[in-house]
Specification:
The chain is an alpha+beta fold. The protein folds into 4 domains: 182 residues, Beta-Lactamase (2-Layer Sandwich), CATH 3.30.450.40; 143 residues, Beta-Lactamase (2-Layer Sandwich), CATH 3.30.450; 165 residues, GAF domain (Beta-Lactamase), CATH 3.30.450; 174 residues, GAF domain (Beta-Lactamase, 2-Layer Sandwich), CATH 3.30.450.40. Helices cover 50% and strands 19% of the residues. A hairpin with a 7-residue loop joins strand 13 and strand 14. The longest helix has 48 residues. The chain starts with 11 loop residues before the first helix and ends with a helix.
């Protein structure tokens, strides 16, 4: 409505009305202005409150990852004020990269801060120019192709898909027709938000509010960076102190074994630096050795030094790795195994320097940050600097250790070279046991020397054990069992060293057999019980051609690589000396054989020279002398001529010291049951049979009564009494076609002595048969003369 007041002046009444209307409108407009001002003040209050919430949250920042929560807050406050925003972010402009903390497209928090290379914006002229300018804001509107290219770079260079599973797909971008970024500068970078589509001119109010958000955030963020710088300086001092403790302890090493104390200091200092470390270790000489030689520390006090032979496993499954690993760590308690296997995950960081590696682990699966990995690197470098001292110590200790090993080997060598018979192997294994103990070997479960016999799988073991009074010589016949079959398989394959662990069932089945059916049944009961109760059993065997050194293990303590090398050296030394022993034994056997042949020849000559039966007494004296020359040391020698038809035998025996007897005595075979058995055995046995009898002390009075006639005929100084046989008579005789010839001893004869008696009996039998033939011929000739 309009009124022409110039050409048509209003009547007085109208003028009055207009004045009133003007006054009314003025009042209404003033109210409108007041309302508008009030709304602006209310909005400003809302903006201020929003800014304050952003500012206070930024002021409370403790770490960079808190930006992930702040950008969520900024987006919520921004949209609550009525502005549209999809993604919202803060991006730090660093010299080499961008660090972008952003929300998801729906405003929710995402996983972690994204790192992007500088060229992602440097390759975009608009953004490159803006970052170099002082303009407070920039709008980057991207069409579909530009948007697809930018998002692809975020995915490929910044791991966008993993950081935000809801990241837009190519179809999403095509559907919205592109992307627009609206950004406002901060002191150290930018904050910004995205809109769908191409928005060349976003609302000015949106940009103005974004600038104010940038200002509010920037003040608090600058303070955070200043605090962060101060904390970094304090953290640097803290790290330097920790490094100095490691450096100082490393330089203070006097023995290489003190490396366990150094790694403990490293572990303690990592913990003090609030790094999530549950386990740490040095890896020594990783470049020259496929096996892992580790010095380690953790809160469970596991063994400080372990050697893990190389193995190839997938690390996808933590428990698969640790189950196999536990087999290689000696003495690890079950509760510690259960702890590790019960942990939810495993995260490891390792730094590899010139000669050593240093690693840290946690069992929550939390990946170590860049800062923590840098600290790890610094610790590694500090130790690398002092590692030279460790190597010098190790070299000196190795020289001392080598001298000690050589001295131990020389003891074994010299004792082995001094052997004259196989029985002395017991003394050799005792020396081996003592020297391995001196070298700190784990041999508390026993050590054995094994000698192999060509053509047989039976084992001859000389074994020593803390539970035995002396070394034991045990013959172990082969039987079908994994412990023995695996041993022979390894030997037949030419392995120098073989180690194998068996479970409790395999251990018990083996022990039950040898304790029942072999000479191991003499094992003391407490040792049997200990072995049978073991959870497992392992053999560590150093093979040579003729011998082996064998270490038992019922305690789960495997030999280290160094110990295996030393054991192989012991095995080689013993093999060399054992071969020499076999040569000596062969030479001695030949000399012994020559001595036996000479003795046989003297008995043969004496027998061949006989002309009368009474000369048999002289022959028995010759036999006694030859037995004595051969070291058999009989008390007497004797001859028995059996007359089965008349159930009698004729007995001749030398006196004490082989003195000649002066007669013979005919005795009824059934005078003693033992003679009846002997006569039956003579009649039924093969030629060259041996007859071994034992007359216990209580039977000797009866024996002396039966042979009273013979013993009475002996000179007083040649008479034999029961007191000459305190343990009874051990009677050994070799079969003749017409009886027995042999000897009496105070001890059980050896197997060799029995064979010698058989040979003498054989020679005498032939000569005596010739003597009888000559006597018959002479008797015929005499008869023909008459």
């Amino acid at each position: 409505m309009s009124i022409d007041l110039l050409d048509n002046p209003p009547p007085d009444e109208m003028e009055s009305i207009l004045v009133k209307m003007g006054g009314a409108f003025d009042l209404a407009y003033k109210r409108f202005e007041d309302l508008k001002k009030s709304e602006e003040q209310l909005r400003e209050s809302k903006v201020d409150l929003a800014l304050e919430r952003v500012r206070s949250q930024a002021m409370a920042m403790q770490k960079s990852s808190d930006l992930l929560d702040i950008v969520v807050t900024m987006r919520n406050e921004f949209t609550r004020l009525g502005h549209e925003a999809h993604y919202f972010w803060h991006m730090m402009w660093l010299p080499e990269k961008y660090e972008k903390a952003m929300t998801s497209g729906d405003g929710t928090k995402i996983g972690f801060v994204m790192e992007l290379p500088r060229h992602i914006h440097g390759d975009i002229p608009l953004l490159d120019r803006w970052e170099k300018s002082e303009e407070p804001t920039a709008v980057y509107a991207m069409n579909v192709e530009e948007a697809l290219d930018y998002v692809h770079k975020m995915v490929s260079l910044g791991d966008f898909k993993n950081i935000d599973p809801q990241a837009p797909s190519n179809d999403d971008i095509r559907h919205i027709g592109g992307l627009t970024f609206i950004m406002a500068r901060t002191t150290h970078g930018e904050i910004g938000f995205s809109l769908p589509g191409v928005v060349e001119n976003p609302p000015k109010e949106d940009i103005d509010i974004l600038i104010r958000f940038a200002g509010a955030f920037d003040i608090a963020h600058r303070r955070f960076l200043d605090l962060q710088k101060s904390e970094a300086q304090a953290r640097g001092v803290e790290i330097e102190l920790a490094l100095e403790k490691v450096r100082s302890r490393s330089m203070g090493m006097q023995k290489s074994e003190e490396l366990k104390e150094v790694i403990q200091v490293v572990y303690d200092e990592f913990v003090k630096l609030n790094i999530n470390v549950e386990h740490t270790g040095f890896i020594i000489d990783y470049k020259t050795n496929d096996d892992m030689h580790i010095w380690l520390a953790d809160r469970h006090k596991v063994p400080a030094e372990i050697s893990i032979p190389y193995f190839d496993l997938s690390f996808e499954e933590k428990n698969k790795f640790y189950t196999d690993l536990f087999e290689l760590i000696p003495g690890l308690p079950e509760e510690i195994k259960e702890y590790y296997l019960g942990c939810e995950a495993l995260a490891i960081s390792t730094v590899l320097i010139d000669n050593v590696g240093l690693y840290i682990e946690n069992f929550t699966g939390t990946v170590y940050t860049d800062e923590e990995n840098k600290i790890l690197m610094r610790f590694g470098k500090v130790f690398q600097q002092t590692y030279t001292r460790f190597l010098d110590l190790q070299k000196a200790e190795a020289s001392t250790r080598e001298a000690k090993i050589e001295a131990a080997l020389e003891k074994v060598r010299s004792r082995s070279l001094a052997m004259h018979n196989a029985d002395e192997l017991g003394e050799v294994i005792t020396v081996v046991f003592e020297k391995l103990n001196e070298l700190d070997f784990t041999v508390k479960d026993g050590v054995a020397l094994i000698t192999f016999t060509e053509g047989s799988k039976d084992l001859i073991e000389w074994m020593t054990n803390p539970g035995f009074d002396a070394a034991m010589n045990i013959h172990l016949p082969y039987f079908d069992h994994p412990i023995l079959s695996n041993l022979w398989k390894a030997k037949d394959e030419g392995k120098e060293f073989f180690v194998k662990r068996y479970d409790a069932d395999e251990n018990k089945s083996f022990l039950n057999h040898i304790f029942e059916y072999t000479e191991f049944h003499h094992t003391p009961q407490d040792i049997k019980d200990f072995c049978l109760a073991a959870d497992s059993y392992a053999t560590s065997i150093a093979f040579q051609k003729n011998t082996a050194i064998f270490i038992n293990d019922y305690s789960g303590l495997s030999l280290s690589g160094k110990e295996i090398t030393i054991l192989n050296r012991f095995a080689k030394v013993f093999e060399q000396t054992y071969i020499r022993f076999l040569d000596l034994q062969k030479a001695e056997a030949q000399a012994r054989e020559a001595k036996i042949e000479m003795a046989l020849e003297k008995v043969r000559a004496s027998a061949m020279a006989m002309h009368h039966s009474h000369e048999l007494d002289e022959l028995l004296t010759v036999l006694f002398d030859q037995f004595d020359v051969l070291g058999i040391q009989p008390i007497t020698t004797h001859m028995t001529l059996i007359d089965m038809e008349n159930n009698t035998f004729t007995f001749r025996e030398t006196g004490k010291g082989g003195r000649r007897s002066f007669g013979e005595q005919r005795v009824a075979i059934d005078s003693m049951d033992i003679w009846t058995d002997a006569a039956n055995k003579w009649r039924n046995s093969e030629p060259l049979a041996i007859n071994s009898l034992h007359f216990p002390p209580e039977s000797l009075p009866m024996l002396w009564q039966i042979f009273h006639e013979s013993f009475a005929a002996m000179p007083e100084d040649a008479k034999i009494t029961p007191e000459d046989y305190p343990n009874g008579i051990y009677h050994t005789a070799g079969k003749l076609p017409f009886g027995y010839i042999g000897m009496n001893q105070v001890r059980k004869p050896t197997q060799e002595e029995e064979q010698i008696v058989v040979r003498f009996a054989s020679e005498f039998g032939r000569a005596y048969t010739r003597f009888l033939d000559l006597q018959k011929q002479k008797h015929r000739q005499d008869s023909e003369c008459y």
